[in-house]
Design brief:
Organism: Flavonifractor hominis
Mean pLDDT: 78
Strand content: under 5%
Radius of gyration: 18 Å
Number of domains: 2
Structural class: mainly alpha
Low-confidence stretches: none
Largest sheet: none
Shape: globular
Keywords: DNA-binding
InterPro entries: Homeodomain-like_sf (IPR009057), HTH-type_Tx_Regulator (IPR050624), HTH_TetR (IPR001647), TetR_C_Firmicutes (IPR039532)
Helix content: 55-70%
Number of strands: 0
Protein name: TetR/AcrR family transcriptional regulator
Length: about 190
């Protein structure tokens, strides 16, 4: 991603990147990433193609940027929530943030299992969990993160596919019961 020094320019750049990211997420609800072009993204964002290339080298660079922004938005904003001291509270805050995003972007969950949208969501959640679990449990953080990310996304896909016949509250209550209360619950045994 390309950078400029001026703070005014930085504000404009952030606004443009925000519009491009939102356009990409909207398009991902309509069709697979492989069928989205830079022109499609620019038209949806109402940004000229040369402006797109002033910010990103290609659509993959935009996707990487969007993933990073989405990952940051899933993080709990309460600094007291730390997986070392309260993994359940941290994880549930992360889950609530991801759940709200996914409710607003249900079509991303309905994509085929090997489509880019699903893979992107899976990698975002896995990376956030792996990063926070590293050094907090005796189990391998990569395996643990992939287990929980896969299970949660499968559960959410099932929930969306079945017309959300189960309330948000019931779904959240079940997820809370699935998550261990303390790091000692995830110790090697």
């Amino acid at each position: 991603m390309k950078q400029h020094d001026s703070s005014y320019e930085d504000l404009r750049q952030r606004r443009t990147r925000k519009h491009l990211t939102e356009a990409l997420f909207t398009l991902l609800e309509e069709r697979p990433f492989s069928r989205i072009s830079v022109v499609d993204i620019c038209q949806r964002a109402m940004v000229h193609r040369t402006t797109f290339y002033a910010h990103f080298d290609d659509k993959q660079a935009l996707l990487r940027y969007a993933i990073g922004e989405l990952e940051r938005s899933f993080e709990p904003v309460d600094p007291s929530l730390d997986p070392r001291t309260g993994p359940k509270e941290y994880f549930m805050a992360l889950f609530h943030n991801a759940f709200e995003f996914l409710k607003a972007h249900k079509a991303m969950l309905l994509a085929g299992e090997h489509d880019t949208q699903f893979d992107v969501l899976y990698e975002i959640i896995t990376e956030a969990l792996r990063t926070k679990l590293t050094g907090t449990i005796d189990l391998d953080p990569e395996i643990t993160a992939r287990f929980y990310a896969g299970g949660l996304l499968s559960l959410l896909r099932w929930w969306v596919t079945n017309g959300t016949m189960i309330s948000d509250e019931v779904l959240i209550q079940h997820v809370e019961r699935f998550i261990p209360q303390s790091p000692s619950s995830l110790q090697k045994g």
